[in-house]
Amino acid sequence: MRVFFFLILLFFSNLYCSEFSNYFEKLPILKDGRVRPLSSFSSECYYNISENFFSKSNHIDWFVSLTTGDEKILNEKNIYIKNNYIISLLDIKKNKNNYYSFNDIYFSIEKNKDYIIYLLNLNSENIDEDQKNLLNIFKKTLIYINFNNFFFKNNSSENIFFYDYERKKWVNFNNLSTNVLDIYIKIFDYYKKNDIKNFTKNFNFLYFKITSNLKKNQIYSLKSEFFYNKIDTIKNSFFLYLLSLFIIFIIFFFNRFNLIKIFKLIFLLGFSFHFSSILLRFFITFRPPVSNLFESILFINFMFSLTILFYLFFRNLNKFYIFFSMLFVTIMQYVSLKFSLGNDTMYVLLPVLDTNFWLTIHVITISIGYFLCIFLGVLIHLFFYLLYQNNFNNLDNKFYNFLYFLCILSLFFVFSGTVLGGIWADQSWGRFWGWDPKENGALLIVLWLIFTLHLKYTNFFNNFIFSICIFINNIFVAIAWFGVNLLNTGLHSYGFVKNIESGLFLFCLFELFYFIFFIVLKKMKKLTFFKI
Amino acid sequence: MKTINNLIRFFNKNEIFCLMILFFIIIIFVGTISQKYINIKSSQEIYFNSYFICFFDIIPFPGGKLILILVFINLIIRIIKTYLNIKKLSTNVIHFSIIVLLIGSFITNKYSKEYTIYLAKNEKQNKIKSLDDFKFFTNYKIEESKIFKNTDFSLKKKIKKTEKSEFNLSKYFDIKKIPLFIENNENLAFIIIKLNSIEYYIQEGFVSKDLRFEKEFKEIPFYIKLKEFKKINHEGTNLPKSFKSYIIIKNNNLKKEYLIEMNKPLRYNGYTFYQTSFIENKDNIISILTISKDFGYFFPYLFFILFVFGFLIHIFRIFNIKKYLIL
C-alpha cells in the first residue's frame, strides 16, 4: 500500500503546477530552430540553475514568475553552488544545502565582472576547473538577467521567438504585431491580477490562432513534447527502476520471494515509462531516437530492459542475472537522466546527420551491436559469480555455447554497423574510412571480438580464457561508447562529452575489482576450473 | 620450395592471425589516443599508414600497413588451404569479404584522387582543382626543388622597415615540414628551390610571369554548370538545415540536370561529386563541391554483401541454433 502511495506521489509530483502554468507550459515558442512548448525551455533553464532533478518548485511556475517580473523569485534559493572556491571568491555566506538566491550572488558577480570577461575571452583549454565553475555560475545568473521581466522589457536580446499569427512568422517578442502583442500583454496582465477566467479566454484564443497556422507535424510534435514533459518519462522510469532494484536486492539477499509480484509490477511500470519516452521522442523529432549520445544510452538501455522483461515473464527467474541487469539498467537510466538535465536533447541536426535512412540503418545496427556486447558483458559477470559459487553443474557447456553465439551475433552487428557507417561517410564526406576516434572505437570492439573468437580455436587457450576475453570486451565497449568522445577531436562532434572521465575510470576499477574478487580469489582457493 | 612451404605453414596459423589482430588493437588504441595531441592526418601517417613505428623512440613495433598486409596474406593462405572444404564455406566467404575490403582500401589508398570545384550561379567549368597535387612552373634554371605540402615556420630575423620586400621568404623565416591537417585550407604549402646556390621559399599561390607554384588543375571531359544553389536554414537560426546544388552536366551534345546534396552524391563518368560546403557573399552563394576519382569505392559495398551472406550461412546453416539458445 505504501509503495502504491509512493508511486502515485511520484507520478503526480510532475503533473502538479499552478492553474495558470498549466496553460503557459503549452505555449509554442521557437528556440534554436525548433518549435517546442514553453515547458521544454523552462525546464532547460531551471535545471541548468538548480542542477537537481528533485526540484523544489515547478519549473514552469518558476519561469513564468521570473519572466513576468515577480520580485520574490529573485530571493528564492534555486542556484546551486557547491564549489568552496567560488563561495569564497564571491564572498557569500555558505548555505548548508548549497542553494543560493539570485540576489545572494548578483552583486558579487558584478564585482568580479572584469575577471569573468577575461575568462570568457580565454580558450577553454587554458582555464582550470575552478574558473570553469565560476563561468558556470555566471551563466546561471545570466539566465536570471536575460529572463527577468522578459515580457515587459523593451529590448529582449534572447533568441527566443513567438508566433505572429498576423504576419505568419516567428519573431522576437518585441517585434510582434500590435494586435498579437496586445493579446500577450493581456494574458500576462490577467495572470498578474490572478483573473483565471479572462486569462483562459485570451490564452485559448492565442493558442488556437497559433496552432491553426502551424504545420500538422509541428502540432503533433508540440502536443507530444508537451505530454513528454508533463509525465517526465525518464525521471519516472529511473525512480521506478531504482525501486525495482531495491526490491530485487531484498528478494535476493533476504529471500523475501513474496515480493516478486510487486517487483514485476514496478519494473513493468518503469519499463512502460521508458518505452513511452522512446516512442514520444520519435513522434516529437520524426527521426529514429538514436541521433545523439543521450538517445543511444536511452535506446540501448531500453533493449537491455527488454531482456529483463523476457527473463522475468518467459524464462525461469535467474535472481543474479535480474539483479545485475537491474543494476545496469538503473545506472544507465541515471546517466541518461544526468545527460538530459538542463540540455535540449532533441536539438536540430546538422545536414549531414539529418537523414532518417542512415540513422535507421547505421545507428540502429551499431546500437544493437553495442547492446549485444553489453548483454554478453552482464552474462559474463553472472558466469564469474556462478563459477565462484561452484554453482555451474550442467550449465557449463551450454553457457559457453550461448556466450559463443552471442559473441558471433555481436560481431555481426558491430561489424555491419561500422561498415555501414563507413558507407554513410563515403556518401557524405567522400571517404570510407578516416581513422576518426569514433570509427576507431567501433573497430576496437570488432577486432577484440575477432581476436576472442579466433582465440577459441587456438590450442593454447581454453574456454575460460575465452570468457576472460569477453569480460575485457566490456572495457572496449565503454571506451568505444564513451571514452573516444572524451578526446573531443574528429568529425563526430555531435557525440563530444566532458566530465565523464571519473565515471569511466570507476567503471574500469569496478571491473578490475570484480575480476580480482571472483577469479583471483578463486585461484587462491586452489579450486580447479573445469576445462572443456 | 621448402622455405615457401614453411612460410605458408607459418602464416596459416591461427596464432599468427591472433597476434596480428592484437598488434592492430594496440596500434589503433595508441593511434586514437594520440589524436588528442597530434592532428588526425599525422596520426594516420605515423600509426596506420606506416610499416614500422617506434614507441618511445626505442621499442620497434609493426605499423598498421604491415599488419594489414600480413593479415591479408594469412587470409589468402587460409582460403587456399580450405578451398574445397564445403563445411568451411561460411568462414571462407567471411574471410574473402575481408580480403575484398583490404583490396579496396589498398586501391583507394594508392590510386584515389581528390579535387574541388567552386561554382557561382550560372558558372560553367571543366577544370577541377586537385587537393593533393601541386604544379610548379619556372623559367629559371633551378638546381634543386622540394615541395612541403604543409609547413610550420619560425621567424629567423625581424624585417626592418627600411628593407625592400622580397618574394623570397628564406631570409626571414625557417620552415619545416609538418603532417597535413584534415582541413585542406589549413595547410600551408611551400616549395623550396635552389637558384644560384641560394635557397628560396615560395608559398602556394605565388604566380608571376617566370615563376608559378599552385595546386594542379585537371581538365575533365565534360562541363559542369551551377544552375542553382539552395540553402535552407533552421527557422530563427543561422544553422543550415540543408544545402544543395542543381547542376547541369554538358557532355558532348548531351545536357542533363542533376541534384547534389548532403548524403546524396552524384556519380558520373568515374567521378563522384559531393556537396561539401558553400561560401555566402553579399550578392551570391558559391557552392563548393568535392570530387573524387576512386576506383575502390564499390569494394566496401561488395564487402558488406559478402560479409552478410557469409554470416547468415554461418548462423543459420552451420549452427544448430537450438543448441546455442539455451538460456
Q: Which features does this protein show?
A:
heterodimer, A: about 525 residues, mainly alpha, four-stranded antiparallel sheet, two-stranded antiparallel ribbon, about 65% helix, about 5% strand, globular, disordered C terminus, B: about 325 residues, alpha+beta, nine-stranded antiparallel sheet, 7 helices, 16 strands
* Secondary structure tally, helices of chain A: 20
**Pairing-aware structural class of the strands and helices of chain B?**
alpha+beta
SSE order of chain B in H/E notation?
Answer: HHHEEHHEEEEEEEEEEEEEEHH
Number of strands of chain A: 6
The helical percent of chain B reads: 25-40%
Principal-axis shape of chain B equals globular
Strand order of the largest sheet of chain A: 2-1-5-6
Q: Compute the separation of the termini of chain A in Å.
A: 51 Å
Mean pLDDT of chain B: 83
Low-confidence stretches of chain B: none
Structural class of chain A: mainly alpha
* Largest protein-protein interface: A-B, 65 and 62 residues
Shape of chain A: globular
Portion of residues in helices of chain A?
Answer: 55-70%
Give a description of the structure.
Chain A has 532 residues and is mostly helical. Helix content of chain A is 67%, strand content 4%. Chain A contains 20 helices and six strands. Chain A has helices spanning 2-15, 19-24, 38-50, 59-67, 84-89, 102-111, 113-121, 129-147, 178-193, 196-213, 216-231, 233-254, 260-285, 293-314, 319-340, 356-389, 395-428, 437-455, 463-481, 501-524, and strands spanning 28-31, 34-37, 79-80, 99-100, 160-164, 169-172. In chain A, the strands form two sheets. In chain A, strands 2-1-5-6 form a four-stranded antiparallel beta sheet. Chain A has a two-stranded antiparallel sheet with strand order 3-4. In chain A, α9 runs antiparallel to α10 (196-213), α16 (356-389) crosses α19 (463-481) and α16 (356-389) runs parallel beside α20. By secondary structure, chain B is α+β, with helices and mostly antiparallel strands. The two termini of chain B are 51 Å apart. The model of chain B has no long low-confidence stretch (mean pLDDT 83). Chains A and B meet through α16, α17 and α18 of A and α2, α3, α5, β12 and β15 of B.
